[in-house]
Write a structure and sequence with these properties.
single chain, 105 residues, mainly alpha, 4 helices, flat
């Protein structure tokens, strides 16, 4: 569970970075042009991005690509990361604190 909480906070931090990038582009150009998640993924590793569509269409279902994955890839990277990280942070329970032995109540 602690690993999922770490992933949640990393996603929130990445959302903040993407939002900061979007804000800088907005200040420089005067127009709001958020970076899509698909472009971020292509900048990181384009080969894996190119394998996602055929894998989903052939091995899972074309509906998953057409109605879920493709629209997500066109969405703002900051928005997708913030929503995913926020949901993970809310849904994953916090770890319980353990008392040290010999501790007074």
């Amino acid at each position: 569970m602690i690993a999922l909480r770490i992933v949640a906070w990393l996603l929130i931090a990445l959302a903040a970075l993407a939002a900061g990038r979007d804000a800088l582009v907005w200040l420089e150009s005067g127009g709001y042009d958020p970076i899509p998640l698909g472009q971020v993924w292509a900048n990181v590793h384009i080969d894996s991005l190119q394998l996602v569509e055929p894998a989903l269409v052939r091995h899972v279902h074309p509906f998953l690509w057409e109605w879920i994955a493709f629209p997500l890839l066109q969405s703002s990277a900051a928005l997708v990361a913030a929503v995913t990280g926020g949901l993970l942070a809310i849904l994953v329970p916090k770890p319980k604190r353990r008392r040290r032995s010999g501790e007074w109540r």
